[in-house]
Each structure stands twice: as C-alpha cells, then as structure tokens.
Amino acid sequence: MNLENHLTSIVKEILTKHYATEIGEKMIQFEKTSKDFAGDITLVVFPLVKIAKKSPVQVGEEIGAILKNEVDLIADFNIVHGFLNLVIANSYWVNKLNEIAIQADYGSSLDKGSRLMVEYSSPNTNKPLHLGHLRNNFLGHSVSRILEANGHTVVKTQIVNDRGIHICKSMLAWERFGEGETPESTKLKGDKFVGKYYVKFDKVLKLETASVIANWEKGNFDESSAFEAEYTKFAEAMAAKEDEKSKKGLADKIKKLANNATPIMRDVKEMLLKWENKDPQVYALWEKMNAWVYAGFADTYKAMQVSFDKLYYESNTYITGKQMVEDGLKKGIFFQKEDGSVWIDLTADGLDEKLVLRGDGTAVYVTQDIGTAQQRMQDYPDLNGIVYTVGNEQDYHFKVLFLILEKLGYEWAKNCHHLSYGMVDLRNDKGEVGKMKSREGTVVDADDLVNEVVLTAKEMTEERGHIEGLSANEKEKLYHLIGLGGLKYYLLKVDPAKRMTFNPEESVELNGNTGPFIQYVHARICSLLRKAGELDKAPIQENVFLHDVEREILKKLVEYPVIVESAGKEYSPALIANYVFDLGKTFNSFWQSVSVFKEEDLELQRMRLELSRNVARVIKSAMYLLGIDVPERM
RNA sequence: GGGCCAGUAGCUCAGCUGGAUAGAGCACCUCCCUUCUAAGGAGGCGGUCCUAGGUUCGAAUCCUAGCUGGCUCACCA
Prior knowledge:
Gyrase A, domain 2, 15 strands, 22 helices, alpha/beta, 4-stranded antiparallel sheet, Isoleucyl-tRNA Synthetase, Domain 1
C-alpha cells in the first residue's frame, strides 16, 4: 500500500475517534510537501477546520501532536498556514529502498492485463518518412512498452496505406516519365525514388489544372462540358464577392473542379479502377514500386529502432471493408444515393453524413479502416481493444470510424482508442513558426535527421574524451545510442496531445532536459558501481542517517510505479520523460554534494551505493519505456 | 458558419481530479574540477498564468462570455 492511502486510513480513524464524529475520506487530503518546508507529505487542514471549529493553525497543531504521539511512522511535523507537513521516519524510506532493491521488474504492474493492439507509423507508400512520422513512431512504440509495463500483452502493428489514388499517382508518373530508371540505377533509397515521382505527378497536375482554368475562363469547355455548369456557378459567385477570403475560397473550389477535369487526373482514376479490377499490368507495376518503398522503409525503421509484430495492408483489408459495407447496406445501416455511392447518416449523433463507398464502387479511406478493424479482431479473438496512433487532424475521422463500428454491432468498438497527437511545427532561421510544407521544401526527412543527430553525438562525444578503450564498433553504437536517444527524448517529452515546435538546435542538444543528460547520469552511476565491485546484498540497516537529498531520491524511486500506471492510463510517454529527468536531476545534486568512497561509515557507503544502483535501474527501466537505450559509459 | 484542441518567463515546455511565495530547461550573469565521468552542480535575472466576469476559505486549474492561433466539417488519405 502506498504512503498516502496508508496515512489516510490511519488519520481517518484517529480523527474520527478524537473528534467523536465521522470523518469522510474526502476531507483527508494529502499532497506533496513543498520543497521549501521540512516534511515528506502534507495534510491540508482546511477541510477539517469546520469540524474542529478552530483556526487552521490550531487544528494543524492539534492533529500534528496526536499523529506524532500515536503513529510511529511520523517522526515530526510543522504547520505553515493551513498545511500540516509531516516528516516520515527515516526507517520507512530505508525499508522502501530494501524492498525496491529485490524487486525484479520494479515499476511494472503485477496485474495481468488484457491483450491490446497498438497501431502506429502507418505510412503512405508514395513518399519517404518525415519528422511527423518520427513523433508518431516513437509515441506508438513507447506507448506499447508502457502498456506492457502495465500488464497488457501488446501486438504492435501498422496499416500500410499501399493502395488508393495517391499510390497510382507515383505509378503513373513513373510509367510516363521514368524512362525505366530504378533505385539501383539512380542509387536512390527506394522510398525516396518513388517519392520523386509523386512530386513529378503533382507538378504535371498543376500545369494541366492551370491550362484547364485558362480554357474555362475563355469559355472553352470542349473536353470538360460536364464541369461547365458548376464552374459558371462558382465564377459568378466569385465576381459578386468583395472580400478576399470568400474570393479565395471560391477560387479553391474552382481549382479542385479543374483538378478533376485534367487529363492526367482522368488517367490516374482509370488506373485505380484497373488496379481494383486486378489488371495484370497495373498490378505488376504496383508490386514492383511498393517493393522499392518497403526496402527503403525497412532501413529507416531499423535506424529508428522501432519494430512491428504484424502488418496489415490496405490492399488486402479494403476488400473486407467493402463486403462489410455491402452487408451493412442490406441491414439498412448504410444507404445508397442515386449515383450508386453508399453513405451512413450520423446526423443523429451530431456528426454528418459520411461516404463509405464511391459512386464507381471503389473504396475510400474509412472503408478499409472498417475492414482492417474487423480483420484484426478475427486474427486475435482475445483482442480487447485497438489503440490508433494517428495525428489530431484525424480526430473527426476516428469519431466517425468508432461510431460506424458500433452501429455495425461490434462490442469491441468502445474499447478502441485514438491516440491523437499534435503536429510538429518548424521554426525557421527568422524565428517564425510554421507547418512543414513539401512545396516549400521545409519537410524534415527522417533519414536525414537521424543521420544528423548521430553525427552531432559523435562530435560531442569525441570532444569529451570519456570513452578511450572502446572499439571503433562500440563507439559507433554509442554515437547512435546517444543521438537517437536525444531525438526520441526530445519528441517524447512533450504531452502528445499538444502540437510542438521542432527546433533543430535543441533536438541535438546534450545539456539540460535532454536524453543524453539522463544517459549521462546512468553512465556515471555505472562508473561508480564498477569502482565499488561486488555489492553486499544484505538489507541496509534502517537506522542509517539520510541526507535530505537522499530522502528526495528515495521518494522519487517510490513514486515510479505510480508514474508508470498513470502513463499507461493516459497513453503519455511525456509523464515518464518528465519523471526520469527529475530523478536524474535530483541524483546529480546528490552526486555533487555527497561522496560515496570518502565516507568512513561503511554502512552509509553501502546505502549510498545501493541508492545509486537503484536509481540506475529505474533510469534504465524508464528509458526503456521511452524506447531509449542507456550506456554504461559515455 | 458548426465541431474539436490550444494560449503559463525572451524561447521550448511542466503544473490543470482547485491548495502554500506558479516550476524546469535553454539563453543571459556569478561562482565550483589536486575529490566517484563538469554531457555536472550551487546561485542570480526573468511572470497582467490571453482578457473580462462568476463559483470558492482558496482559481493557472472549475463555469460563462469574448480574443488569438491551429485542426476539421472531401466521391483526399
């Protein structure tokens, strides 16, 4: 039982007896003692003032005296305003250290949880991974480990977005403009190679769109008569508007219309249709280009040190989705419009009507998501829920998806959770903050960034010169461990729900609230333990003297399992990151002010080594939950 | 326009199930390596917690209204 619960029941009993009236648990509020005052835990006396009918200070004095007298655990107390600060006996903390020291997986829950699936990454196979994917991958990977630490069995997965109009775009561009070149012939990484053709398609599309609009403006609708009526409507509305915002909105609508009227768009739609009909030529092209992309992704995932247990492919699950939509249509859950498109009406739930199948019968995004969920449940019958690590621009999408699954009658729909995270903004040289835009070339490529942080780690480490004696191979591993650890920590320390600003200099920083700072604490402790040699495993005597900073460290160690639990409940690696930084900082303060080997009292020396050893264990464990390795020297 | 999210130090962020004088890191300024790794430590400077009301013994935290920024409401994914 933790200290707070333990004290709550004791205090409740004593006060009920003393004041001869029932004291509710809600009236007994504990909180951490402010570091400006002596004490380990603080009772807020305000709620008790009414019952005792005395001033807060008097009530505090009274209760403090009773507790000190009757409870061994409480060594001393002091009152500041309405706060009763309690000093817990040293022996309590020392015994806690002895308990922690013999627990194998300290911090992990002993309860058997359920089986969960965590989806993350889920890239499109038409362009390389970028900074946004890094946040996604690190989050998903870390949350998987945090859930495991909470007793769950986790299946790490992704849905590979390997089909759809966007994939056909790079295929068409390569077929038309590629002249047979390959990743091998160009020495480009496969994902980068395919991404190049996606960009090429976009360029051609823009040119064609511009020419379509130019024709329309001249009243020339030869090949796009179907668009004439709609265009005229928008154009007239635009001429009537005065303000820039409305004008721009209408201009965008015209652009979208013109997009769809371009020859290249018509061709790519035809290609998608062919693909869904398994046209052999289109299918072979698709397989070839996807293979290039997967080879590229594999390298990136390896460098990022993330992994998956099971992969799902949209190209496979969208069929299940389509079948489910057809079944749902028969059951009356969906309805069909005149043009053959299929919809679901969610207006009764405060949402809109939502398309689930296009007029030409092809699947949309949500169609395959429905199928994917169903397939996962079939593959893992004991699966209790799915966690989707996807950016917050899709909040609405997941509301819709979960609601559709519920309406289709799936019980497990209510256990699905959208782990929504904010986008990563960039800060440019001028200090302006903005989104990544591929058009402006401000997309931060995942491979480039990983290479850069590793290189910085190498330079910094060589400068320090702490690692003489390591082999070249060991050194390379260390640079990777430090660089990547720094990057992961940088992206994980922020609350997932919040959008964050990416600052290139800060992401490779080694001082302050950073991954390497924490890794360094671990390396220092390892150095200390190497010098100490074999430790005596006997429990520490409970009457040893404790410095304030040592008590602080012990309090933090005791807190660790609570942090792991709330990180699991909130799907938040940031809680772990902040905790472990705080632990490291406190330990550094101890390191600086308290010597281990100069201490003449051997029991004290033993306690300090044991304390240090367990700090290192918790750091290693917490960093593992973040997906970060810690070195023994750096 | 409807819905969702956010606004805390010069910058990046904690704190938000109401509690003490609102905390870290970076940046800037002082000190501390003959001592277990200075990728460190000790201290200083720095705040209308977006604004205005309200609830409360007590509000950065809860409620209401407004302001600012973002996302979303596609036969895109």
